[in-house]
Fold each of these.
Amino acid sequence: MTLPFFVYGTLRPGESNHDLFLRGRVQEEVPGHLSGAVLYDGPGYPYAVEQPGGVVHGELVTALPRLYAGLLADLDRLEDYVPGDPRSLYERVERRVVRDGDGVAVPAWVYVAGPAVAARLRRRGRRLAGGDWRTRDR
């Protein structure tokens, strides 16, 4: 299934992994937000953890169609996501993400913390108030 990606951390424009992974591979990047999740510090990179009432801010990234499969594979590796592997740091899930400009909700791939990571973060992680990686204390 070809979906846009919702990025909320180091893949956002101006952040460390944006140019390494996305430059020249996308046709559109628009601000958006994911409801039902909160953001935790990695440290060095964030984790979205699903939680009712939360919101995470980021961008919806639409890949160039001819480059989609390669980008998907590269992002899965970056996020240490292996389908079905409980040791994965992240899980890639389909969620509805709202485009900030027009309020339209679209299905998108989102990398959320894997179950073991999410449980650890809920117990003793540092939650980022406001759900925006760009406003974190550096």
Amino acid sequence: MKTGRGIVRRGLEYLALACAGLSALGLAAIVGLIVVSVLMRRLVNAPLHFTEEVVGLLMSACLFLGLPLVTLQARHVRVSILANFLEDRHTTADAVLSILAAGVGLTCCIWLFVEAIPWIEFALKRNLRTETSRVLLAPWLMSLPVSIGLTGLIFLWQLMDRIAGLWGRRSSAGET
């Protein structure tokens, strides 16, 4: 069982790292586009007309593609007052709180995933493009269900892992 959990964690970690790598490439592209646009504006008084739209699309994609790794490593914003209080004193309460947090995260991911699909279908059917540069929107919109789906899988894995940990802690406490 432990090896199976380790394999799943390793697989989720590789997928999250791949998304984070794409996010890092997107951030580098943002910097590159802005530098080129500023140089074009200063040197030849002709900035790139598509910079703002593409940077906005890249920024949104980078935000969502970075989310799975942040979730896997638990590096997101948390309300630390209650978590720190329970961490040292009540291990069962801390475990229950982490189970609730993973459940809420999973619920939000499912909700966002379900809501995103009709928007992507609409963009694909209408062949939607950005206003100025005429860049297709559907590929950019795909970053949302991919990253939210992976984040949901990570929350599901964390939820199951924490429930198994709490169950194991209770069964071992009952044996002693």
Amino acid sequence: MSQNYKFAQHTKCEYFPCHKGVDESAFNCLFCYCPLYMLKDECGGNFVMNNGIKDCSGCTKPHRPGGYEFVMGKIGLVIERGSDF
């Protein structure tokens, strides 16, 4: 069974690659905007807070191999938190 839906790459994007430290041939752009951002400190990524703003520029988890599984493993929490609004 094909699993092509787990990977997308946009090498013509002016920001590609937007994060350093991931092999460009394996860089996954699928989660260009990380759906885990709203989880704040529960996202599991490598972020820092700058003047009260979450800075994810040092996080490569959604863009590495296995990133799809990482994000989808936490998407239930995103859905749960979204229903709180």
